[in-house]
Amino acid sequence: MDVIYSLIPGMTIFGLVFVGILIWAVKKGQYEDMEGNASRILLDDDEDAMLISQPKAKKDASARKE
């Protein structure tokens, strides 16, 4: 029973700390654009990947010709 007397205030303080962190995150704008970041990962940068891979392909082809 003595454990309950220390757990209740401890968990209350723990809960208040997490509520404080949540309020701080909301004020800092962590939850402003929930859809943007979720869909940004689906965007594929094929053009950039093709530009990077093309010079290697040209170098390999020119090395084979020689």
Summarize the structure.
The chain is mostly helical and 66 residues long.
Description:
- By secondary structure, the protein is mostly helical.
- It has one domain.
- It contains three helices and no strands.
- The N and C termini lie far apart (85 Å).
Keywords:
single chain, mainly alpha, 82% helix
What is the secondary structure topology, with strand pairs?
Elements (H helix, E strand, L loop, with lengths): L1 H27 L5 H7 L5 H20 L1
SS field, number of helical segments: 3
Relative helix content = over 70%
Biggest beta sheet attributes: none
How many beta-strand segments? 0
Enumerate the spans where pLDDT stays under 50 for 5 or more consecutive residues.
none
